[in-house]
Specification:
Elements: H1 2-14, H2 20-23, H3 25-36, E1 45-49, H4 55-61, E2 66-71, H5 74-87, E3 93-96, E4 109-114, H6 124-137, E5 138-149, H7 153-160, H8 167-179, E6 181-182, E7 193-194, H9 198-207, E8 211-217, H10 227-231, H11 234-247, E9 259-265
Parallel strand pairs: 1-2, 1-4, 2-3, 4-5
Antiparallel strand pairs: 5-9, 6-7, 8-9
């Protein structure tokens, strides 16, 4: 449980997750775009598991979907309740809890989002239990959407931000590449995490008896660009998004993306 305590302390006391999507607009745009491919005209029952302060929960609720939000960090649930008042949008429920032990009845949801839990679980058995719980609470035919961090994300982070002269960072990076484990030790880098390969992602979804539907890079080739510059102008933004979509099926480019989204069906 130590890694979860470290993770909770990171989000509770050190990192502003509440505004992360504002700081990463391309990731947020692409996540919403990909999730939208699995929405229907009618209102869905959605579980946003590990949904932090509800960036995706409120976006979906504003479209008329019934959303239950769960997160491990108490601060995030408090922030979600405050955000509900500010936005004038109410979620169905707000729970502080563990993604491996969901407080929901079986077969109650049309869509489950795991937009963070899988990259905070270093043990394979914990990830399986998390995915299996999502399977349990989904209706037959329901969809699971998971976001994960790429095994190679820190290579780009290191070179783009001039971190390769930091011996501690290089040590962390070497462990990332060798095993997927991300252990920040006594540094100020990202908290305890696990970085997936695309093949491992597919195998973990299938292991929990989901039918594999799709695996999509989120940022795609734009991971290596100054994406904010391209997003600052509407015409440039549409050009960027057009070519991310156009190249999202090219296997050779998958590893460039900092995040991937995998979709399965019960």
């Amino acid at each position: 449980m130590q890694e979860y305590q470290e993770m909770q302390n990171f989000y509770q006391n050190r990192y502003d997750e509440n505004n992360r999507m504002d700081r990463n607009p391309l990731e947020y745009l692409r996540c919403k775009e990909i999730i939208s491919r699995y929405l229907k005209d009618e209102a869905l029952k959605v579980a946003d598991i590990g949904g932090a302060s509800g960036a995706f929960s409120f976006w979906l609720a504003e479209q008329g979907h019934t959303v239950s939000l769960l997160d491990y960090t108490p601060l995030h649930i408090e922030q979600a309740k405050e955000k509900s008042v500010l936005l004038g949008v109410e979620l169905y429920s707000y729970d502080c809890g563990d993604a491996k032990h969901l407080p929901y009845a079986s077969e109650g949801f049309d869509l489950v989002l795991l937009m963070g839990p899988l990259y905070h679980m270093q043990k394979a058995e914990d990830r399986f239990q998390c995915i299996n719980e999502a399977h349990r609470v989904l209706k037959k035919g329901g969809i699971i959407v998971c976001e994960c961090i790429s095994r190679y994300a820190n290579i780009f982070e290191g070179f783009q931000n001039n971190l390769m002269s930091d011996e501690k960072f290089v040590e962390i990076l070497e462990e990332n590449l060798a095993s997927g484990m991300h252990n920040p030790q006594d540094t100020g880098y990202f908290t305890t995490a696990f970085f997936h390969t695309t093949e491992l992602l597919k195998s973990e979804i299938k292991q929990a008896d989901f039918s594999f539907i799709d695996l999509v890079p989120i940022e795609g080739f734009a991971q290596v660009l100054d994406a904010d510059n391209w997003l600052s102008d509407e015409e440039k933004k549409e050009t960027l998004l057009k070519y991310i979509r156009k190249t999202e099926r090219i296997p050779e480019l998958l590893g460039i993306s900092g995040h991937h989204m995998i979709i399965g069906k019960k």
